[in-house]
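ARCHIVE RECORD
Type: protein–small molecule complex
Small molecule: 2-OXO-4-methylpentanoic acid
Source of inputs: curated submission
Record status: active
Notes field left blank by submitter.
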Amino acid sequence: MHPPGRAGAILEFEIRPSRHCLRDEDRHSFLDAPVFGQVFTDHMVTLRWDSERGWHDGRLEEFHNLSLPPSASVFHYGQEVFEGMKAYRQPDGSIALFRPERNAARFNASARRLAMPELPVETFLRAVELLVRQDRQWVPDGAGTSLYLRPFMIATQPTLGFTLPSNSYLFCVVASPASPYFSVRTGPPALTVWISEEYARAAPGGTGAAKAGGNYAAAFLAQRHAVEQGCDQVVWLDAAEHTWVEEMGGMNLCFVQQPTDDGPATLMTPALTGTLLPGVTRDSLLRLAARLGLGCEEGRISVAQWRKRCEAGVITEVFACGTAAVIAPVGQVRAADGGWTVGDGRPGPVTMRLREELLGIQYGRRPDDLGWLRTVCGPTEGPTSLERVC
Ligand code: COI
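STRUCTURE (tokenized, with ligand):
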């Protein structure tokens, strides 16, 4: 439907470094204790698409407000997709991304579902890497900190017409230093979750497998309801039967089940039925769990089974996982007809072991033998003529 642009052409970005970068001392004050998604780096990347020219006008420039007509289709029909990924400071001072090709592929899957143009994977990676290199001094080095990257695409055609998808789009990448979601010294606290039986996140044939802003917009009401019930996060059930557990908030869910015989414990996570987001962290943890000798299962679990198996001591740990939160242990579950405790209500050993394995690879403390890291800047990489530090 959408012409991809000049086939085979390598897209170049015009580099326009900002003349108003934050002073070192101000930047350091943000990097000491960054709050998720509050402060953004000096630069951003933009790239445009229209049906005549395909992808064009790529730029790296100063972080700035966008100017769009109020008639731009994103404001009315919510045609938007995004990604979440992180750049990690390595022990030698270099900077690496974690499985960014996966984010690029998922971005395109999301774009296809929302009838938006796909971005060549190498262009997606180049955009992200340009920004990280330009703003490398914004990659924090405190324990558990990272530079959170948010690539996104919006529909910009100025029309209220609803016959065809927008004929123009803006792709952007912005970056924000991020703290560990959980205290590193005390370990992650266990969350209390609310099972939403009233609302559904995604239905068969819908956009649940896409990272589309609209999915998150529709989740706020249930999330607020969960908070009003004294819970941290909402748990989503399938839309058809309101029975099968799908996700938690904006993250995938994993269950640690003890064996009935002498075998190993199993990491079970709801299968990707088309209504769940295929998380990069979810996939990575399944791979790491298998390497640790755990059984791995992509299956399904009902709320009743969750409760019964916790009460029987079969399910001993539950956690949510995602790029932003990494691993978020679940300690208490509440629903309209009561609640129960997972294990002893605290983060369990399998959860913590998987977390340490994953973080170990991401922060270069463990060998990257799965080839998941992509180095973006060397330890001493100085400014180049194109990408200079301002
Ligand atoms: C991420 O984990 O990167 C996400 O996009 C989740 C978001 C709700 C913070």
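CURATOR ANNOTATION: The first helix runs from residue 24 to 32.
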